[in-house]
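pinned: reference chain
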Amino acid sequence: MADEDDEITEAFLSGSAYERLRLQRETYFSQSIPTKLTWQSALLAGLALLLPLWALYPETVAGYVPTTNPMIASPKVLLLGLLGAGIELFTATLLVGAALYRIHRHPLSEGQARTVLNVEDFASYLGFGTGGMAIAITVVYFLIGAAGGSAIEGYVQSMQSNPFATSGVGLSVAELATFAFVGCVVLMTLRLYLRYRLLALKTDATAAAE
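pinned: its structure tokens
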């Protein structure tokens, strides 16, 4: 509680409209943009793990999956993972844009700060809500497959649907995993860059206030 009070006090003393409004807003995602990018990188890393998961599928799943070779397998559930990855990269772009706007337009007016925070909130709720859920469900499906043919059979019989059937779009497990891994690396690189720039910005603002 003391640390939170100190952070709020520091935000007010810095004179930054953005920092003050960020800490006053009622939101589940008041974290800094570098922290949010770290979380999004973790979600994309989860998709990258689909490749080794599929590669470990036992032979008992053969009757329910197009192939156990992740280089050519293209199950329908992969489309959900692609949607999740697309949302994460789109919302990450919004977050990076918001951070760059702060850096290049510093100091922000109260109106500008509210606009930036609105963009952040939209990106956060969409990215961690819709995108995060899509990725989580995809990983869960892949874990069901890793449990063997009996697990898939039980799911197919209860739901009357096979999410591992061929999608027909040609996107393979390996391609999505590679795409997600590259996205993860890019976001982590941007996270490091923005963390450095925003820290320098905060230091300069504190020095100017003193």
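why pinned: The two ends are 25 Å apart (CA to CA). Confidence is low (pLDDT under 50) at residues 1-6.
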